[in-house]
Specification:
Layout: H1 2-28, H2 32-39, E1 65-71, E2 77-83, H3 86-91, H4 93-98, H5 111-117, E3 123-128, H6 140-147, E4 155-161, H7 174-191, E5 199-204, H8 206-220, E6 229-233, H9 239-245, E7 247-248, E8 252-253, H10 256-259, H11 262-269, H12 278-294, E9 304-311, H13 320-331, H14 340-350, E10 352-353, E11 359-364, E12 368-375, H15 387-398
Parallel strand pairs: 3-4, 3-5, 5-6, 6-9, 9-12
Antiparallel strand pairs: 1-2, 2-4, 7-8, 10-11, 11-12
Helix pairs in contact: 7-8, 8-12, 12-13
The protein binds 2-acetamido-2-deoxy-beta-D-glucopyranose (2 copies).
Length: about 400
């Protein structure tokens, strides 16, 4: 009798202890420093013992990639890679091989830069990577190679390590990453002199939030700037939904127990510093274009082109985030709006079924296109190297324009 009581008592203590440590952990999430470790993971570099100034280590041709520095207006130094497409490298191999390797003190003096700036047909992808790691980690190098896949003489990529990542200075924050993105865009348009119609913004995971911010920021300027397109791989709707669905190491649902109590979740979300409201920014971006077309004054804006791709087996960020984003985007094309359920009913009309390859739906208006493509496989990162992504980038460059 008393033995059972003692046993029950220890079980009760164990349960109480577990519950208490869970809540202590949830409380810890309200601390900005801890949030940064969850959202940005910039201290996990994943390219330990490798010098990110020698990209040949990740399978690039000699001097195919030029590492250089960008300076932000608020005094940070960002590490960047300019990746030449291999067809172009081959045409100029002799000259490129003779140039000094490693970090260049002056990118404008390099042959690769000249090949970008002086070619009126050059296309440029501005690349915003996900959380953790550096320019050289994981599936990023294969991803750069997939990007130029469709046009190996033409598509250049410039990728950056945000502040606090890799060898870039500073530490990350939403404001900081926005500044970093704008610094890259200004470099592309003012230094490399690539007009926005020849620029596509690419983001994966955290990078999708940066890319959407940037597209919207430029579309809202008094003199709007419109990039050719936006390709978003494994995006998240906003940080609020991200924390609610986040799983540690892809398995332990962090806040799902809390998410069952919307009021508690909303309370916790008040403490989140960096909100990255991508779904709202994307909707605003699309509304700007849609409303401009029906307006009477001024010239119509160039069309928007947004491609969202997600793996059904992505356990870092569930593909439900892409469903949310697509819905908010489509909702912004309808003056009276559309509910999530109504949209689900309409989806079969435009749905293209690709069997084991997944499926795609799109919404096309007179002003632009938003497309959602769900691949059966691809996980969170591997998908970036898939031909579906190469094709999405190709499409983002060539809508309303004849391929060369
Ligand atoms: C983690 O990153 C921050 C920048 O965000 C840096 O100041 C700090 O030194 C890094 N810590 C470690 C242990 O690398
Ligand atoms: C959908 O669009 C309508 C009309 O613009 C708007 O009133 C509504 O807030 C939007 N819904 C969401 C969830 O953003």
């Amino acid at each position: 009798m008393s033995v059972t009581a003692t046993a029950l008592q220890s079980v009760a203590y164990a349960v109480a202890g577990a519950v208490a440590s869970y809540f202590a952990f949830v409380a810890l999430l309200t601390v900005p420093f801890v949030q940064n470790q969850v959202i940005y993971l910039n201290n996990v570099t994943l390219t330990w013992f490798k010098d990110v100034n020698y990209p040949e280590q990740w399978g690039f041709l000699h001097n195919q990639v030029t590492p250089f520095h960008l300076r932000t207006g608020d005094g940070e130094t960002l590490h960047a890679w300019h990746i030449l497409p291999p067809g172009l490298w081959q045409q100029h191999a002799e000259e490129l091989i003779q140039e000094p390797a490693g970090l260049t003190p002056d990118i404008t003096a390099r042959k690769s830069f000249e090949l970008l700036r002086d070619d009126p047909d050059a296309l440029l992808v501005l690349y915003f990577h996900g959380a953790a790691g550096t320019l050289g980690s994981g599936h990023r190098p294969p991803s750069y190679k997939a990007i130029y896949g469709m046009e190996p003489n033409r598509i250049h990529t410039v990728a950056i390590d945000y502040r606090g990542f890799g060898t870039s200075t500073g530490s990350p924050s939403e404001q900081g990453l926005k500044t970093d993105a704008l610094t890259l865009a200004r470099w592309a348009m003012n230094e490399a002199k690539i007009p926005p119609e020849r620029i596509v913004l690419f983001g994966q995971s955290l990078g999708t939030a940066v890319a959407v911010y940037m597209a919207n920021h430029y579309a809202k300027l008094p003199e709007p700037v419109h990039f050719s397109g936006l390709v978003l791989v494994a995006p998240f709707a906003d940080v609020e939904l991200l924390t609610a669905t986040y799983r540690v190491a892809g398995t332990i649902p962090l806040l799902e127990p809390v998410a069952k109590f919307p009021k508690l979740l909303a309370y916790l979300n008040r403490f989140i510093r960096d909100k990255w409201p991508t779904k709202d920014r994307l909707a605003e971006f699309i509304r700007l274009h849609e409303e401009a077309s029906s307006g009477s004054s001024g010239s119509p804006r160039p069309g928007y082109w947004v491609s969202i791709l997600h793996g059904e087996d992505d356990y870092d960020i569930p593909w439900a985030h892409s469903e949310q984003l697509f819905w908010h985007a489509v909702n912004a094309t309808e003056p009276a709006g559309i509910s999530f359920e109504e949209l689900e009913k309409e989806k079969p009309e435009s749905r293209v079924d690709m069997g084991a390859g997944g499926w795609a739906v799109e919404r096309r208006t007179a002003r632009g296109l938003v497309k959602e493509q769900i691949l059966k496989n691809g996980l969170h990162d591997r998908i970036m190297g898939y031909p579906a992504v190469s094709l999405a980038i190709y499409g983002a460059f060539h809508h309303g324009r004849e391929p060369r």
